[in-house]
Amino acid sequence: MLSNEIFVRRFTLTLFFVLLLLIGNQQTFASVSEPNQHGTEQVIDNPEHHVLPSPYMVIPFVLLLLMIASGPIMYHHFWEKHYPKIAIALGLITTVYYLVFLNDYHSILHTLAEYISFIALLASLFVASGGILIKVDKKSTPMINVLFLLFGAIISNIIGTTGASMLLIRPFIKINRDRIKPFHIIFFIFVVSNIGGALTPIGDPPLFLGFLRGVPFFWVIENVWFIWIPTVAFMLVLFYLIDTLSVNRQKKNKTQVQYSGKFEFKGTKNLIYLAVIIVSVFLDPGVLSFVPSLAPLPFGIREIIMFSLVYLSFKNADKEVLKANEFDFEPIKEVAFLFIGIFLTMIPALQLIAYEAKVYSNLLETETFYWATGGLSAILDNAPTYLNFLSAAMGKFGLDVNIKSEVIHFVIQDDIYLRAISVAAVFFGAMTYIGNGPNFMVKSISERAGIKMPSFFVYIVKYSVPILLPIFFLVWLIFFH
Predict the structure, then answer these.
(1) Per the domain annotation, does 4 fall within a domain?
(2) Per-residue model confidence as pLDDT tens digits over 391-423
(3) What is the pTM of this model?
(4) Domain annotation covers residue 177
(5) Which of 167, 326, 348, 413 makes an SS bond possible with 57, Cβ 3.0 to 4.6 Å?
(6) Can you tell me the distance from the alpha carbon of 148 to that of 145, in angstroms, rounded to the nearest whole number?
(7) How far is the CA of 243 from the CAs of 7, 181, 189, 345, 471, in angstroms?
(8) Domain count, the chain
(9) Phi, psi (5° rounding) for residue 105?
(10) Which residue in 385, 405, 388 sits closest to 354, CA to CA?
(11) Residue 179: which of 243, 128, 104, 106 has the closest Cα?
């Protein structure tokens, strides 16, 4: 066990590293190769050296986060009407800065490609799962809810956290319709939309990026399962206790309701659509060499298939199922507009982080990678955050993240760093509504079902900080300290 003095020193180093983002300077960095949305390596910068973005260009990103947090509470009607314009306007500020002042169109095109892949996956899973109706006419109990969340955590590694969230959130709400509380949805986000998907590259986008870079497909489950099991178990035990207390409080004023115990499943053909979506994830030249690349277009065969399935799955869906699910496009519309703003405005933040991570990689230890990756994944897109810190970790040993053979060598020799980065990127996505794509969609669907969800800051202060941070601290203490 390290002494308190060493612990304080390393914890201070972690904070220092994160704060470097705020200090930033106009230094240059060399061009690097990075896989595009088709998995093939391409140069994302010109051969010349480029000027780092001004640290002041982080302001649009911070402003967007603050408005996402305060808008629904302080100026609800204005925000509800104008959030698409606000997100796009702030995104355009960053875009104009890069195109006009930095003459850097590669970063914008690369971000556009990532966004198209992101929204194609979310939209296709959202619409395909919207055509599936699961009805369980059984009395909700804490144990049934625990088993439901456990099932969601498991299948999130097969159909992704987005697929599992969209498939299960509506039946989860319906089975608890007589006593649904915000904490039910919060724990659903914690377990199904985030932590559950830490075992396979399909589970969460950062893990899939690692797979494209050369991390073996089964490395994740082989090296994370012993962290995943106790974390998920602890979350479910905690939820069981809270849900049991909630049931006991409500018993006095509840009338007995009769349940048939029947289970109903409609929309079987949509399971085929879901299967095609999951298979299409691998239709990438970087994974399957026979898949054609459509470069320089900012999308590939994969995205064409996914957007086609958005149309087909909606057109061919059972209208009665859509009506029973109260399906509409508002949740995916909200995600699409807000995240185009987030993707664009976070470009300067990510580039500053990448630069500082490279510069200070020799000072970064396992716990620094864990907390820095986790903390930034909570407010930035966790996929590029994962990639930046993976690059920094490999830089400690003179290895290049763009060379698959060196990634494989790094995985074999120094897997503790990759384990810390992988776990943190996935787990900490649950800390905020914007930490992972499904979070916002689950929130939106729940609100449309009449559930009063906590605001951005209340979510953090009341739920993620007191519940998740102690658990993540224990994960660090046991596995990475």
Answers:
(1) no
(2) 888 878 878 776 788 888 888 877 899 999 999
(3) 0.79
(4) yes
(5) 348
(6) 5
(7) 36, 9, 15, 39, 19
(8) 1
(9) -90, -15
(10) 388
(11) 243
- Amino acid identity at 94: T
pLDDT for 4 equals 47
In whole angstroms, give the CA distance from residue 334 to residue 440.
8
Count of residues in the chain: 481
Determine the Cα–Cα distance for residues 428 and 420; give it in Å rounded to an integer: 12
Which portions of the chain are predicted below pLDDT 50? 1-2, 4-5, 7-8, 11-49
Contact 112, 298 (CB under 8 A): yes
Task: Concatenate the DSSP letters of all residues of 160-217 into one string.
Answer: HHHHHHHHHHHHHHHHTTTT--HHHHHHHHHHTTTGGG-SSTTTSHHHHHHHHHT--T
47 inside domain: no
User: By the 8 A CB rule, do 170 and 186 touch?
Assistant: no
Q: Which domain holds residue 444?
A: 57-251+258-480
Q: Where are the alpha helices (H) located in 346-381, listed in sequence order?
A: 347-359, 366-377
Helical packing angle, 347-359 and 330-345, nearest 10°: 50
Has residue 246 been placed in a domain?
Answer: yes
Q: Is 416 exposed, middle or buried (0-12, 13-18, 19+ CB in 10 A)?
A: middle
